[in-house]
Design a protein that fits this description.
The chain is mainly α. It contains three helices and no strands. The protein has one domain (3-88).
Length: 89
């Protein structure tokens, strides 16, 4: 394995991490923004009002997008194993 292969592997790992985390992060950020706007409009500053919906939504999104996440992780593993096989030969 040379520097180009290592660079490609790191780039692939970062890209896979972004793809796997994007649905959950986007959903939680959206709900956080909506709740923040509602808190600003109503002047209710309750801390649990922000955390509980975010946690529930994050768990729900993890359950819903688990097949997508597993598929992305499986494709990453296939690429890594392919790179290992190429190095061994």
């Amino acid at each position: 394995m040379n520097a180009v292969d290592a660079n490609e592997l790191v780039q692939l790992a970062i890209w896979t991490t972004l793809l796997i985390s994007a649905p959950v992060v986007a959903a939680v950020m959206t709900v956080g923004l909506v709740i923040s706007v509602l808190q600003a409009l109503t002047q209710i500053q309750e801390v649990t009002l922000t955390f509980v919906p975010k946690i529930i939504l994050a768990l729900l999104m993890l359950v819903v997008t688990a097949p997508y996440m597993g598929g992305q992780l499986g494709m990453f593993a296939d690429r890594v194993y392919g790179m290992i096989g190429a190095v061994v030969r």
